[in-house]
């Protein structure tokens, strides 16, 4: 993604959800939901790239070079994301 965007800034990812868990931005799906997902053929650990049954809560953070968060967007509804224009404005302002 960074290469495609030709970004000159780092992209941070949290594939194992460790950071998300420390911020309470990940939830354990629970045994009942795990069973339902397995029955439906949904292999969450394979899809998420780790063996845990955690789902991250979608969040976007724009962090300035001094480590200060310039903008953030958090919404447990995975269909809601930070607007691109808002994200780009935050990146420009943080630069």
Please provide the count of β strands: 4
Proportion of beta-strand residues: 15-25%
Tally of contiguous helical segments: 5
Order of helices and strands: HHEHHEEEH
**Cα end-to-end separation:** 19 Å
What gyration radius follows from the Cα positions, in whole Å?
16 Å
Largest sheet: 2 strands, antiparallel
Would you tell me the overall average pLDDT?
89
Return the structural class: alpha+beta
Helix content: 25-40%
**Which strand order spans the largest sheet, edge to edge or round the barrel?**
1-2
Question: Shape, please?
Answer: elongated
**What is the quaternary state of this protein?**
single chain
Low-confidence stretches: none
Q: Which helices and strands, and how do they pair?
A:
Blueprint: H1 2-5, H2 18-22, E1 26-28, H3 30-39, H4 44-48, E2 54-56, E3 59-63, E4 69-74, H5 84-94
Antiparallel strand pairs: 1-2, 3-4
What do these coordinates show?
- The chain has helices at 2-5, 18-22, 30-39, 44-48, 84-94, and strands at 26-28, 54-56, 59-63, 69-74.
- With 95 residues, the protein is an alpha+beta fold.
- The chain has a two-stranded antiparallel sheet.
- A hairpin with a 5-residue loop joins strand 3 (59-63) and strand 4 (69-74).
- The chain starts with a helix and ends with a helix.
């Amino acid at each position: 993604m960074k290469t495609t965007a030709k970004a000159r800034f780092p992209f941070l990812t949290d594939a194992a959800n460790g950071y998300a868990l420390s911020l309470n931005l990940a939830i354990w799906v629970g045994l009942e939901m795990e069973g339902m997902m397995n029955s439906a053929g949904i292999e969450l650990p394979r899809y998420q790239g780790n063996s845990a049954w955690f789902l991250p809560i979608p969040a976007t953070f724009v962090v300035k070079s001094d480590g200060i968060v310039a903008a953030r967007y958090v919404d447990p509804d995975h269909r809601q994301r930070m607007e691109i224009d808002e994200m780009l404005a935050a990146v420009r302002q943080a630069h």
